[in-house]
DNA sequence: GTCTATAAGGGGATAGAC
DNA sequence: GTCTATCCCCTTATAGAC
């Protein structure tokens, strides 16, 4: 059986995805678990701690990606590695990714998070140094597209592996990395 | 001078973009306008009416796009027309587009909106009939990428025309419409 | 158009029993 | 780990004066 703590996070995640963080009350989380608010407060001292506990593992998983990428020898190999890893991450989390990316409450917490700098690192690994406006737009569209496509309900019929393959192919084409 | 009604919508839009709809109270809107809540209620009977008044013009502007596109003769011309128009729309609204697209409250209202079917029409104009998984992923990534890139703060230094040009070029490449 | 005042309800959060 | 009960604040919304 999952721990009470895990059940809170699971219920919270579903509700955050559906209603956003601000649109989700502790009462709603408790109701979905079939317990009272007080039981939820026994696991987490504040609502903010619940949000942090939901996003933490994803943000922490970004650090090893940047570290591994930095060890590759060529810029092309680094780009390719980051892209592969980000596609994996987005598909692994699918519904969650959109919440993490767009919820205003989450955004504010992410901005203050220790892992925040890693995100800029990953973007820079993709753009290369001193990128042109064209390249910056390309990377922004891929980043946004990956997150959106992962969350897109009309694609929920596609199995993870199929989605991964297509997302990677489309991203490579968008970034003009087809032949590298 | 702008009407009180317009000032409400302008204040609401900024706050929705920053905090989301659920994270924005009527008190915050009133404070930003320098009036009291009751003054806001004099313009709109409910908070939901404010949200609707914010999104209505954008949704209504989708209908003529689909209509004009349908009059083009070839599928390629229709795709190209939709893409041009959507890029224009996204750039025209930039920050707003992300709120409109991802806020859970807005999404629920959009789903019930008369213009809702137009969105599926536009997607179908882009995918063509009976699209493959690959094509569906392509279109989902472009749609998400356009909205995200429009809202991306790191691209806010790019002037509208520059952004438009790059978004269109990148979208065409992603959709493999380079040579059509 | 804007105000004060107020109602009714829900939000986050705490105390203490079991 | 979960409960009941409660506190205080903020929320949406309304009534009526200016």
From TrEMBL, chains A, B:
PROSITE patterns: HTH_TETR_2. It comes from the Bacteria. Coiled coil: none annotated. Residues 2-62 form the HTH tetR-type domain. Pfam families: TetR_N. Residues 25-44 bind DNA. InterPro entries: Homeodomain-like_sf, HTH-type_TetR-like_transc_reg, HTH_TetR. Gene3D superfamilies: Tetracycline Repressor, domain 2 (1.10.357.10). Keywords: DNA-binding, Transcription, Transcription regulation. GO terms for molecular function: DNA-binding transcription factor activity; transcription cis-regulatory region binding. This is TetR family transcriptional regulator. The lineage of its organism: Bacteria, Bacillati, Actinomycetota, Actinomycetes, Micromonosporales.
């Amino acid at each position: 059986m999952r721990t009470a703590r895990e059940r809170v996070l699971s219920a919270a995640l579903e509700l955050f995805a559906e209603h956003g963080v601000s649109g989700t009350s502790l009462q709603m989380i408790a109701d979905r678990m079939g317990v009272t608010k007080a039981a939820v407060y026994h696991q987490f001292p504040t609502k903010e701690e619940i949000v942090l506990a939901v996003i933490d593992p994803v943000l922490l998983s970004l650090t090893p990606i940047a570290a591994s990428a930095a060890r590759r020898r060529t810029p092309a190999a680094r780009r390719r590695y980051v892209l592969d890893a980000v596609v994996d991450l987005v598909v692994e989390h699918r519904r969650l990714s959109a919440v993490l990316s767009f919820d205003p409450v989450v955004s504010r917490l992410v901005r203050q998070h220790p892992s925040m700098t890693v995100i800029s690192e990953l973007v820079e690994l993709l753009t290369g140094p001193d990128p042109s406006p064209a390249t910056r737009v390309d990377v922004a569209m891929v980043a946004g597209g990956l997150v959106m496509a992962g969350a897109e309900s009309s694609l929920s019929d596609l199995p993870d592996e199929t989605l991964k393959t297509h997302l990677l192919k489309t991203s490579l084409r968008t970034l003009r990395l087809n032949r590298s």
